[in-house]
Amino acid sequence: MAGNMGSTIPGSEPTGTADFVGFCWQLQAVARCVQRLFEHQLAKLGTSPDQIWALQLLRQHQPQMVATLAAGMALERNSASQLVERLVRQGLVERSRSTDDRRQVLVSLTDAGEGLLAGADAVVADAASAMLEDVGSRPLTDAAGVLQTVQRSTDRARGYPVRDEEGVVA
User: Fold this and answer.
1) I want to staple 109 with a disulfide (CB 3.0 to 4.6 A). Which of 68, 70, 99, 113 is the partner?
2) Whole-number Å distance between alpha carbons of 57 and 55
3) pTM here?
């Protein structure tokens, strides 16, 4: 096929550049729809999708450096720093110095951050259930795998740190 990128989506024929570009535009449209739904639902809790995403990443691996959080959220470091500053002001996270290297600032959840996450988890789960009621678990698992691969490839192409399947920056 002309324009073949040499990559494949698991279980399919090789995907051409035009097919992939169309996939990317569709992905962007879906991401915007999900973002809007999450913004609407999380506004009821006085928070935003980016704040909840950051808190979820911190819950998975804490404490962590702002640069690690930025990589996990595909944000520029200054954007992640601003997000962390907002979370600190709201009392949802706290900063501390690394005991190994005093130059490193680590970020971790506070009890208030954990509490907000507990409420947000239910809100996000309800929104996700509504969005996915017509999608089975197998297609969702396959799609998640494809998206993780595309994200790693995109990060690598941009020169960003790349996370492995366990979320560790490689």
Assistant:
1) 113
2) 5
3) 0.75
